[in-house]
Give the backbone structure.
Amino acid sequence: MSSFVRAWYVFVGLALLTFALTAFVGRVPVQFSAAVALPQTAVYRAGLHTRLTLEAMLERRDYRAEVATLRRALTASEERERRLELQLAELERLLGARRSQSPAAALSAPVIARTSGGVGDALTLGVGAANGVVRGMPVTAPEGLVGVVTAVSEGTALVRSVLDPQSRVGVTVRSKGGQGVAIGEVGGLLRVDRFIDEDPVEVGDLVETSAAGGLFPRGLRVGVVVEVLPQDPNELRRSFLVAPAVDMATLLDVVLIATP
């Protein structure tokens, strides 16, 4: 076969191949690209969903952290406010005691324990020598006399209440005068024996501290007469029972009065 014929066949073959390829490419790329686009779209959507989910999780985490921070700040603010309220109440008790009981009222103190029974009645305070407390300081509440400091440590003080059988308080009857000594009585009462009265004592009379003994400021409320005991015909003095002005069982805070 001559070179011309072979060249002619090659030319025809290339023409046919070109035609075939041109016809095929006109149809296939659309189908092929569509087939490829589906997994690409799915991957894109999955990635987008994952990114949005992660962003939402991070936002929620940041939100929770911010909420926790705000809650801690609110709690700290409430605690500071509560401390200020307690300090204000303490100052108000102290100023009230100075106005109504004694200008020598020195400090307010919390009651941290109470011991009561037939052998004694005492309170433990949450202040001591470090706060300037000394033995012999009278102790009061807004309602009246509580007792006297009998022992002091660095951070606490022991108070013998007026209900203790060892307690001795010089008393008088308001608006009626008279002199006597109130002693702690079993059963939560005070007993005043051998009272020298100027006017007859009656149930309901108000009993307060007198100048006798000089331990307590004069005029502190001690309690109210609840029973006048029968008088011995041969005895000029009388005896009566007094309900204390202060409820020792529910006492939370007291005021200490400085001694001269």
